[in-house]
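Bench notes, afternoon.
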Amino acid sequence: MGVLRAPVLALCVAALLLPSPVAAADQLTLVLTPSRDPTALQEAGDAFAKALTRLSGVPLKVIVASDYAGVVEALRSRRVDLAFVHPVGYVLASREAGCQILVRDIWQGKTAYTARIYVLKAKGWTRLEDLRGRTIAFVDPASSSGYIYPMVLLMKRGLVTNRDPKSFFRDALFAGTHEAALRALLRGSVDAAASFDTALQIHLKGEPAAEQITYVAETPPIPEAGICARPGLDPTVRERLKGALLAIKKPEYAALLKQVYDIDGFIEASDRDYDPVREAVDLLGLTR
């Protein structure tokens, strides 16, 4: 979710400590969710893949999906072996592609976050009800904080009916990225924007314009994103990758991890961690 720049990090690992490598012909592919500029994300992903290859001995390459649904489809069709999935993406990938969660990421010291519905302070709005008949920018139909959780909140408040945002808002659009949704709000193109709790600090960092924005609603916690593996991946390879991912949170990798969704590292993950997300997906009737 964070700002991504081309990393300038040299990773030095003693050769004797490396696991025996998997043959180059067995190179695996990791697909990334396109939550920001694809070019910057690809550059960061390439460096991340090199680090994981060094630590695990498993050759990896990275691709960036064209959209959120593309990640699930790539797993379902077995065109990729691993995926960096947001919470809703994991639930859909688990159901449709049988993928298994390996690790959950730590982001800004936390393993969960919330979604908020943002507005401009100058409007004087303080309640969700104030947005009736207004316009809103969501992020993507499969975005946890940019659509799913805000919509569930609106439905539970009785403001949105029939799973249709236009039953409450005059118009609703998908901006594609969190930053684009916030920029649309600042330009006055929409009256509200849905995004995650620290979106202003991440996407409008250092900009005075961020002070113009507040929020009128916040969702319950959402479990953090993670990395999942397709079914049928060799168990030994899977465990080597999992071990490398858990090890990469050491201080020497901090600069690299900053480039990859601005994360701090990874922790053990369980499929049960995402049960609250499944409930939200079911309430909204979401499919890929």
